[in-house]
DNA sequence: GAGTTTGAAACT
DNA sequence: CAGTTTCAAACTC
């Protein structure tokens, strides 16, 4: 019954409510972190301040629903028992149906209410704002706004999950993240969403026990701590995923099945362990795993060293976690904490090796590898770079670095997959199921990939019987692990089978030392010489062994010469050669070619002995600010040569620069394709990398050099700036420099 | 998407 | 080294 007294109270309450809703009250709230009487109202007031403005800043017309759905899905799965959550007032709220504002309000309301007497959410929001402001939003590769957004989202998430309240329910976090996503709204590019989601995922690992809600703790401290921990957790997991042991002494290897439980653990666990762990089957964790794997993926794939990887693997298997695996880099100094950053650095320095077989340099490389592969990413034969990169000095550095790298990978991944990162992610986990489980429509996949981004970015195979351990396999031949885009079956070309891969490789090399060497050797002038007459390549550019075409007339990609964008030479045994790049007996086919083999061999050997030289060159290049350009290593030059065509369609200038870290890719992007009409879908420039391979003989006035200069087809075309700049450098460096020019043009989505 | 063609790789 | 087989990419329908 309503008594007069109660009515009076109601009136008072109402008036208070009005007061609180007033602009003045809101203003006051904004000015002071002091916890208001009614947390709920406060939070409501704060919300708009904290997030309302974001959307406008990062507004973009497209919001990736896919990501969102994924995000939701993931978390929902994480806690099926809580498809909905109830607000304190007992009203059931469907998180998925709430509009953004409602979600935000609910989220924050709950957050505030959940704190018994803790920090006002306001303080948290403010902190976040400050944090975000201070974040370094500059990203070398990734759009700065993207980084900002990520950081922002992360910060918000962290704040919500830890500083602003007990990290108890994933659902809540999810909602917040969702809300943020939407609030940030319209972030252009699907990648953003993925990045955001990923960033949030990372923090999902924040276990309550690590960052337990402590009201007595300074919000700032808590906040930063949470971020730090989150990063560490992410690193840990990523390290594990990548086959790296991060922490010592840990025994727990299980993946927590409870949302708030995740994190710890994963100490000595290897990828295998994780995968095998039944708990890991939990979709939630899988997602996390995948996300993290994505991180590793990119990193690893960029620079794998067969030899090194082998050693690394031993560590893993031994469980002797003692040393942090030398993952990505040959740099044994890499510590778990440094890993992410280092990886990044490595991206800069793809790897030095004898046979980096092209691929390494291909844009594909850059691309991500499926998680598994990611586990070791690309393999680069031969010694790896020992270049050391200074570890991050602060968590913040680590934070930004890792994300930068991560985001980059993500971007690439997404791009290459036609904007369907999810698919890949699912396959990433392929580590587990991988192709075997999803051998379905390899062709389909291939096409998709081809369409997606030219597919040039990465080696992708479709092996069914070779186990990807034969040269039939493009990935293997390229010296890289198979990756998610691959549709191979019973693939052994994976990090987990490193031993096998290495052994097989050795075997093959013992049979043919040049088996993994570049198939196409291109002279330094190849690029510029071609000029208008694309029908003939310079004499200096030829297929190592020559082709043996009988029916294709060397006019199809069946022909390795054609595929490699070079003319046939005297080495070819082809019949009815019509190679558009130069017929066997045409002007381009120099009778002196035979000497090639000899030189080539020489080069390879020299390269092997001259690793240190490369390192030095690379460092020099780095110092010159050419980080983004992969070092031209002899090995790298290798496979690429013929890669240009290989597989996929001609490289397009439009290819994202990110993806083209390899000299090859860069070259591809060079954009000269226009000079080459139809057949040569690819840009002969790619081959430039080749040069690297044979710098010595080219420079030494070898027969080939001579040939080049005298090539009848030769048409001097003023080289791009970069070329000119490089002209005075050693061949190896020259290559590196050359690739630079293309870089700009490769800007993603340009 | 399935089937065919092709030529390199692998094998004998 | 030559011939044959196997293989996977390229290609066609």
Summarize the structure.
With about 750 residues, this protein is mainly α. The chain has 33 helices and four strands. This is CRC domain-containing protein.
Based on CA atoms alone, the radius of gyration comes out at 28 Å
Overall 3D geometry? elongated
What's the helical proportion of residues?
40-55%
Low-confidence stretches: 1-5, 12-16, 35-133, 135-219, 236-457, 524-537, 590-750
Largest sheet: 2 strands, antiparallel
- The DSSP helix count reads 33
> What is the arithmetic mean of pLDDT?
46
Distance between the termini: 70 Å
Provide the β-strand percentage band. Answer: under 5%
Alpha-beta classification: mainly alpha
Record the strand order, biggest sheet.
1-2
Beta strands, count: 4
């Amino acid at each position: 019954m309503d008594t007069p007294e109660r009515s009076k109270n109601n009136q008072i309450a109402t008036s208070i409510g009005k007061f609180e809703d007033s602009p003045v009250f809101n203003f006051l709230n904004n000015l002071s972190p002091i916890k208001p009487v009614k947390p709920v109202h406060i939070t409501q007031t704060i919300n708009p301040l904290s997030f309302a403005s974001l959307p406008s800043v990062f507004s973009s017309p497209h919001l990736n629903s896919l990501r969102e759905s994924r995000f939701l899905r993931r978390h929902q799965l994480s806690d099926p028992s809580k498809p909905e959550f109830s607000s304190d007032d007992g009203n059931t709220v469907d998180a998925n149906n709430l509009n953004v504002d409602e979600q935000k309000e609910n989220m924050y309301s709950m957050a505030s209410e959940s704190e018994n007497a803790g920090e006002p959410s306001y303080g948290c929001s403010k902190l976040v704002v400050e944090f975000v402001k201070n974040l370094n939003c500059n990203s070398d590769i990734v759009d700065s706004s993207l980084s900002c957004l990520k950081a922002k989202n992360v910060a918000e998430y962290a704040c919500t999950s830890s500083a602003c309240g007990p990290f108890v329910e994933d659902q809540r976090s999810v909602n917040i993240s969702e809300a943020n996503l939407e609030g940030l709204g319209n972030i252009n590019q699907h990648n953003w969403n993925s990045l955001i989601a990923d960033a949030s995922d990372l923090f999902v690992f924040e276990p309550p026990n690590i960052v337990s809600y402590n009201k007595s703790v300074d919000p700032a401290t808590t906040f930063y701590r949470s971020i730090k921990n989150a990063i560490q957790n992410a690193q840990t997991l990523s390290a594990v995923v990548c086959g790296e042991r991060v922490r010592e002494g840990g025994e727990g290897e299980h993946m927590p099945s409870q949302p708030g439980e995740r994190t710890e653990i994963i100490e000595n666990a290897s990828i295998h362990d994780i995968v095998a762990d039944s708990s890991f089957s939990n979709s939630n964790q899988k997602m996390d795993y995948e996300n993290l794997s994505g991180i590793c993926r990119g990193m690893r794939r960029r620079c794998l060293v067969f030899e090194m990887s082998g050693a690394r693997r031993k560590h893993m298997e031994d469980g002797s976690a003692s040393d942090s695996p030398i993952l990505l880099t040959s740099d044994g100094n890499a510590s778990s904490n440094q890993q992410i950053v280092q990886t990044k650095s490595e991206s800069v320095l793809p790897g030095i090796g004898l046979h980096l077989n092209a691929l390494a340099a291909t844009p594909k490389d850059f691309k991500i590898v499926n998680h598994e592969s990611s586990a070791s990413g690309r393999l680069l034969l031969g010694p790896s770079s020992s270049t050391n990169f200074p570890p991050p000095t602060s968590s913040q550095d680590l934070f930004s670095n890792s994300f930068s790298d991560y985001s980059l990978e993500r971007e690439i991944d997404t791009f290459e997959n036609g904007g369907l990162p999810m698919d890949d992610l699912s396959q990433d986990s392929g580590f587990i199921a991988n192709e075997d489980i999803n051998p379905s429509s390899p062709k389909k996949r291939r096409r998709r990939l081809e369409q997606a981004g030219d597919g040039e970015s990465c080696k992708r195979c479709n092996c069914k019987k070779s186990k990807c351990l034969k040269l039939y396999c493009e990935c293997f031949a390229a010296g890289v692990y198979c990756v998610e885009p691959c549709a191979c079956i019973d693939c052994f070309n994976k990090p987990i089978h490193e031993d096998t891969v290495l052994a097989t490789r050795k075997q093959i090399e013992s049979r043919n030392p040049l088996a993994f060497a570049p198939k196409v050797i291109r002279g330094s002038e190849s690029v510029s010489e071609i000029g208008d007459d694309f029908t003939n390549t310079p004499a200096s550019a030829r297929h190592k062994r020559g082709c043996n075409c009988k029916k294709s007339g060397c006019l199809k990609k069946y022909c390795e010469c054609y595929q490699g964008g070079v003319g046939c030479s005297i080495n070819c045994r082809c019949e009815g050669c019509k190679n558009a790049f130069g017929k066997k007996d045409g002007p381009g086919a120099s009778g002196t070619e035979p000497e090639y083999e000899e030189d080539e061999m020489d080069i390879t050997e020299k390269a092997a002995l001259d690793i240190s030289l490369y390192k030095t060159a690379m460092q020099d290049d780095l110092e010159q600010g050419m980080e983004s350009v992969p070092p031209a290593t002899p090995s790298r030059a290798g496979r690429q040569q013929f890669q240009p065509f290989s597989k996929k369609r001609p490289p397009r200038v439009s290819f994202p620069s990110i993806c083209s870290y390899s000299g090859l890719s860069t070259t591809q992007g060079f954009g000269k394709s226009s000079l080459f009409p139809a057949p040569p879908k690819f840009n002969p420039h790619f081959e430039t990398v080749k040069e690297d391979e044979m710098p010595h003989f080219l420079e030494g006035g070898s027969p080939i050099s001579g040939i080049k200069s005298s090539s009848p087809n030769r048409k001097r075309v003023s080289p791009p700036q970069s070329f000119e700049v490089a002209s005075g450098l050693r061949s190896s460096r020259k290559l590196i420099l050359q690739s630079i020019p293309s870089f700009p043009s490769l800007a993603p989505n340009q």
